[in-house]
Design brief:
The protein is an alpha/beta fold. It has three domains: about 10-60, no CATH class; about 65-105 and about 115-315, Endonuclease, Chain A; about 320-485, Endonuclease Chain A (Endonuclease, Chain A, 2-Layer Sandwich), CATH 3.30.870.10. The chain has 21 helices and 20 strands. The strands form three sheets. The protein has a 16-stranded mixed beta sheet that branches. The protein has a two-stranded parallel ribbon with strand order 8-15. The longest helix has 22 residues, at about 10-30.
């Protein structure tokens, strides 16, 4: 035979065939059920680096959870809808504009939870005070405590909170705790946290664990990004803050004076029940334990306030990108003013068109972001959108470094406010499990406006001419980072 398997010409021919085969197959596979921009980014990656590109695509290309989890989420959604039909019939008497009622119906159809009157909402900007309030709530618990946060750390700021959990469990309170496996694992002191939890009677589980030896495997960068605390079903907390000291236990952050600026809310009223439903859903996903009967969900009667609230869960378990659809719907409905606060603003085309169209039709639109982000690629990807936003007439306010404005909320006209864990980026729309809360009525929008006013007073406005004159190399890096942001 004139050739052998080690013949360099044969190897070159085989590699060439493999190279073309990967590219041709990718053309027909990658675009399936993906945004065109996402598909194009993956195809570019595969065409430039066929073998590494296809390996990365196999690891990170699918934003879906396992079929089993998706099916379970669908069943839970159906059960929640059935169990809340009576609540829905008597849910809200608020007479808002038609577009707001349309958003309520959208949320109900996508996330299954109704809007509910009679809630008391207190906003909390002070980082450590927020943790102290959650600690006091746990200390007063009589029946159960549900804790679900993306990141947890046992440190100088959270130590009292975990001590309160330990004491509550010791006196017979049922304490259940969930944290994102990879999100928490990456923070210094993970083993210390596990020792603290294991030495207590707290029942805890990691969410979306990556544990191949135990049969737990999925796309590695899927995250449960929710932040929820529910005490006895009567008191709830949600927002943007994680359970960790404000510098995230990083010496570099401490040296720079970098701290996270958050916004949390303390809730009383029927909406606490909806947060509990989201927690119970995630608990069921990780443990197969159904908490509905034990918690007496869907039976709320006490109404301590005048704010109407609706919880909107979203994430890979849903196929409808609930948060993105809500955000774009509200933005398109605005007639006067939109104020958006998002630490990571990397919109897909639909959100970008919604916000720029709003500005172009005369709506006053402003965006609050950090002067310097904490994630290099995301920060540069975000900056790649500034020019088109400024050209559309959107005012961009940069919160002063070294602080990181990590709060996630927005207001539309004088009618509605949205607060939660969701950023306005493609990761939060497709890869993260998030929880958002739409609020209207009472003085909730006025309260949010006052917080936005404090941001504006501290921030520096970005000017279009100055931004256009930034160095060419910065523009280049921004555009490359923008491309990588779509690889989902």
């Amino acid at each position: 035979m004139w050739w052998t398997i080690t013949d360099p010409y044969w190897l070159a021919a085989a590699l060439t065939v493999l190279d073309f085969a990967i590219r041709i197959i990718a053309l027909g596979v990658v675009p399936g059920n993906r945004r065109p921009t996402t598909a194009m980014a993956w195809l570019l990656c595969i065409f430039f680096l066929p073998v590494p590109g296809i390996i990365l695509f196999l690891l990170f290309g699918s934003p879906r959870l396992s079929e089993q989890r998706v099916e379970r989420q669908t069943l839970i959604n159906r059960r929640v809808r059935d169990n809340t039909r009576e609540l829905e019939a008597n849910s809200s008497s608020f007479l808002g504009p038609d577009w707001l009622m349309s958003a309520v119906e959208l949320n109900r159809r996508l996330g299954s939870l109704p809007s509910l009157d009679g809630n008391k909402v207190e906003l909390q900007r002070d980082y450590e005070q927020s943790i102290r309030e959650m600690t006091e709530a746990v200390r007063a618990a009589k029946h159960y405590v549900h804790v679900e946060f993306y990141i947890m750390s046992y440190d100088s700021v959270t130590r009292d909170f975990f001590a309160a959990l330990r004491d509550a469990a010791a006196r017979g309170v049922s304490v259940r705790l969930l944290f994102d496996h990879i999100g928490t694992l990456r923070v210094k002191g993970y083993r210390q946290l596990l020792r603290e939890l294991n030495s207590s009677q707290v029942e805890w589980h990691p969410m979306l664990p990556i544990q191949p030896l135990r049969g737990h495997w999925r796309r590695p960068d899927l995250r449960n990004h929710r932040k929820i605390l529910v005490v006895d079903g009567v008191l709830g907390f949600t927002g943007s803050q994680n359970l960790v000291e404000p510098g995230y236990r990083k010496p570099g952050n401490h040296k720079l004076g970098r701290k996270w600026v958050e916004l949390m809310c303390r809730l009383e009223g029927p909406v606490v029940d909806e947060l509990n439903v989201v927690f119970a859903t995630d608990w069921n996903m990780e443990t197969d334990e159904n908490l509905e009967r034990e918690l007496s969900l869907y039976e709320w009667t006490y109404e301590p306030g005048d704010v109407t609230c609706q919880v909107v869960p979203s994430g890979p378990g849903f196929t409808t990108e609930n948060n993105l659809r809500l955000f774009t719907s509200l933005i398109y409905s605005a007639s006067e003013r939109i104020s958006i606060t998002s630490p990571y603003f990397v919109p897909d085309d639909s959100l970008l068109y919604a916000i720029t169209t709003a500005a172009q039709r005369g709506v006053q639109v402003e965006l609050f972001v950090s002067e310097r982000g904490d994630q290099l690629l995301v920060d540069h990807a975000q900056r790649s959108y500034y020019e088109v936003l400024l050209e559309a007439g959107i005012r961009i306010w940069q919160y002063p470094a070294p602080l990181v404005l990590h709060a996630k909320h927005f207001t539309v006209d004088n009618d509605v406010a949205v607060l939660g864990s969701s950023n306005m980026d493609m990761r939060s729309f497709s890869l993260n499990l998030e929880v958002s809360m739409m609020m209207y009525g009472g003085d909730i929008v006025e309260k949010m406006r006052r917080i936005e006013d404090t941001y504006r007073a501290l921030s520096k406005e970005l000017v279009l001419d100055e931004w256009r004159n930034r160095p060419v190399w910065q523009r280049y890096v921004d555009n490359v980072a923008r491309l990588t942001a779509t690889l989902q």
